[in-house]
From TrEMBL, chain A:
EC number annotated for this UniProt entry: 4.2.1.33, 4.2.1.35
InterPro entries named in the record: Acnase/IPM_dHydase_lsu_aba_1/3, Acoase/IPM_deHydtase_lsu_aba, Aconitase_4Fe-4S_dom, IPM_dehydratase_rel_enz
Keywords: Iron, Iron-sulfur, Lyase, Metal-binding
Protein name: 3-isopropylmalate/(R)-2-methylmalate dehydratase large subunit
One Gene Ontology MF term: (R)-2-methylmalate dehydratase activity
TrEMBL record, chain B:
Keywords annotated in UniProt: Lyase
Protein name: Alpha-IPM isomerase
InterPro entries recorded: Aconitase/3IPM_dehydase_swvl, LeuD
One GO MF term: 3-isopropylmalate dehydratase activity
PANTHER family: 3-ISOPROPYLMALATE DEHYDRATASE SMALL SUBUNIT 1, 3-ISOPROPYLMALATE DEHYDRATASE SMALL SUBUNIT 2-RELATED-RELATED
Source species of the chain: Amycolatopsis thermophila
Length: 422, 176
């Protein structure tokens, strides 16, 4: 039976020849991933040990834990939180990756997000693994089910296919595309489904752009997103893989809930109004031109990759961040940080007055330099709900790294214009 | 994630009234206000729940009542305390045209019967009596109409019958 990428990945993970959208069945993830956070991992480990009586794991290699939140205050509480995680990971023999960057990026660099793999996490932004042809599914508390049983019951999702052609215009990237898709099809346009990307525009898109696009899938209601793994994805995978992997392509005749086509050349800069990423909040960036900003942020699991930093450097080269504006740039991982230094991009950004911070999740959730009452922030972060980056009386606008950098220079929402391709 | 409450499984048929009808894309955090989404304190939650919509809500709700939503209920970045606040008052189920996946998964884990019934928000009003067969996804209204939705999978039925996923998993996998 012809299958979509998601159906074929889930069939393999379920040990079945085929599965069909709508079926409910237990599936074995290749990796069961978490980041340490109080109330999440500490509780799960305690439940696993005390309530389930699990003294050792049959397959510790399928468990992965990152320390990427709460890294920037250096206080006793942070140390306490992380020590609990270190102790449990040592007890169970689980691989712990500490302070190497944002887990949703580091999982790719370390070879977990391989083509054809099925990954789960309590956090939905694991969907960024789709850039590599892997299926990453955020299952919230159901991660515990997988941690104690090695499998998780899922309803096999339907898939909406996105056929991409063309290439982005200068100053436009996949962040603008995802908000255009939400604007066109609604905040539940792909509800409970997987978004599958293919076509010449998908193949022309850089891996970084694919990660940013797939990582935002939840805002269309999707449970995940996945690109057809092409030569670029396979080359990346071969470089980082420590295990075998089985890339999955959609079969001819696979059944889709819908098929949508996008010409990337027609996508314009989008900015999302504070509150949520829903379609009514998505605007042509030009409509919001002149809206003053005091903070600008490039980072999060949906941005801060080398392409985003190159975009910012293109915009900021020879310019200055406007007086009264603070631009914080947080690379998605330490590896990205080193590359940006090597390419001289951070020299450009520092000369423009940007602040470069160590890679972590801490800006995006309001832990590091929280926004104050009345501030307006333009951000590449994943969420703009009230209170997400600090005060509930601050406003968060979302846009691409191009738009954030241009807005930081202008002191108000602005697009990058004809800055050239990054 | 921690400090949720222990609630018993629902009866086969939940009988109560519609306590409130929300619109499409409803963000559950608004039930207690985004500035309060970290609290599990019962008294505090009672003082905040639904204040922005109906200050008398906590006093008039009775056990067995349900809340109703439109399409994509639970959209946003849902936290757990709002549903804790509602369940503490006796809210027994959520009926909606459709549910946002994150909310659906998180609250199914917690054992809340989430009943998908397309068009429900337009079909009922606050105060209407309802009888909800959550396994069959049917909602019987006081005037004799019966609305039919999408029944949950067998696994989800077992989760709800157990009073939440943790209890089911303990029954299935605990080695102690």
């Amino acid at each position: 039976m012809a299958g979509t990428i998601a159906e074929k990945i889930l069939a393999r993970a379920a040990g079945r020849d085929t599965v069909r959208a709508g079926e409910s069945l237990p599936v074995r993830p290749d990796y069961m991933i978490a980041y340490d956070f109080p109330g999440y991992t500490d509780v799960m480990f305690r439940q696993m040990h005390d309530d389930f009586g699990i003294g050792e794991l049959a397959e510790p290699e399928r468990y992965v834990v990152f320390i990427d939140h709460m890294l920037t205050k250096g206080n006793a509480k942070e140390q306490e939180v992380h020590q609990v995680t270190r102790d449990w990971c040592e007890f169970y023999g689980i691989e712990l990756h500490e302070a190497r960057g944002i887990g949703h990026q580091v999982m790719a660099e370390l070879g977990y997000a391989l083509p054809g793999n099925f990954l789960i996490h309590f956090d939905g932004h694991i969907s960024g693994a789709g850039a590599f042809g892997a299926l990453g599914w955020g299952v919230r508390r159901d991660l515990l089910e997988a941690w104690v049983s090695g499998q998780i019951f899922l309803d096999v999702p339907a898939t909406t296919r996105f056929e991409l052609t063309g290439d982005f215009a200068p100053g436009v990237d996949s962040r603008d595309l995802v908000h255009q898709i939400i604007a066109d099809h609604g905040a539940d346009g792909c509800a409970h489904q997987v978004m599958e990307y293919g076509g010449p525009g998908a193949r022309a898109m850089s891996i970084d752009r694919r990660q940013g696009l797939c990582g935002m899938a939840m805002f269309t209601g999707a449970v995940s997103a996945v690109f057809e793994p092409d030569e670029a994805a396979l080359a990346y995978a071969r470089r980082v893989a420590k295990t075998d992997f089985t890339p999955q392509l959609p079969d001819a005749g696979a059944g889709y809930a819908a098929v949508h086509s996008y010409d990337l050349a027609a996508v314009r800069p989008r900015v999302v109004l504070p509150g949520s990423a829903r379609s009514a909040n998505t605007r042509d960036a030009a409509e919001l031109a002149g809206t003053p900003v005091t903070k600008a942020f490039i980072g999060s699991c949906a941005s801060g990759r080398i392409e985003d930093i190159r975009a910012a450097a293109l915009v900021l080269d020879g310019r200055q961040v406007a007086p009264g504006v603070e631009l914080n740039v947080v690379p998605t991982s330490d590896a990205v940080h080193r590359q940006a230094e090597d390419e001289g991009l951070f020299d450009v950004l520092r000369a423009a007055g940007a602040k470069i911070a160590r890679s972590s999740c801490d800006f995006c959730f309001g832990y590091q330099k929280p926004l104050q009452d009345g501030e307006n922030c333009i951000s590449t972060g994943v969420l703009n709900i009230s209170g997400r980056m600090g005060s509930t009386a601050a406003n968060i606008y979302l846009g691409s790294a191009f738009t954030v950098a241009a807005s930081a220079v202008a002191g108000s929402i602005s697009t990058a214009g004809e800055v050239g391709r990054s | 994630m921690s400090a949720a409450r222990d609630y018993p499984p629902p009866p086969d048929v939940i009988r109560g009234r519609v306590a409130w009808v929300f619109g499409d894309d409803f963000d559950i955090d608004l039930v207690i206000g985004v500035e309060n989404i970290k609290s599990y304190d019962a008294e505090f939650l009672r003082s905040k729940v639904m204040r922005a919509y109906d200050p008398g809500f906590a006093d008039r709700v009775r056990p067995g009542d349900v809340i109703v939503g439109g399409r994509n209920f639970g959209y946003g970045h849902p936290h757990y305390p709002p549903m804790v606040a509602l369940r503490d008052l006796g809210i027994a189920a959520v009926l909606a045209g459709s549910f946002s996946p994150g909310f659906w998964r998180g609250e199914t884990y917690n054992g809340v019967p989430l009943v998908t019934v397309p068009g429900i928000a337009a079909a009922v009003a606050t105060g209407d009596p309802v009888a909800v067969d959550w396994r069959a996804a049917t909602v019987s209204l006081g005037d004799g109409r019966v609305l039919r939705g999408t029944p949950p999978s067998d696994r989800v039925v077992r989760v709800i019958e157990a009073g939440g996923s943790l209890k089911l998993l303990l029954a299935e996998h605990a080695r102690t």
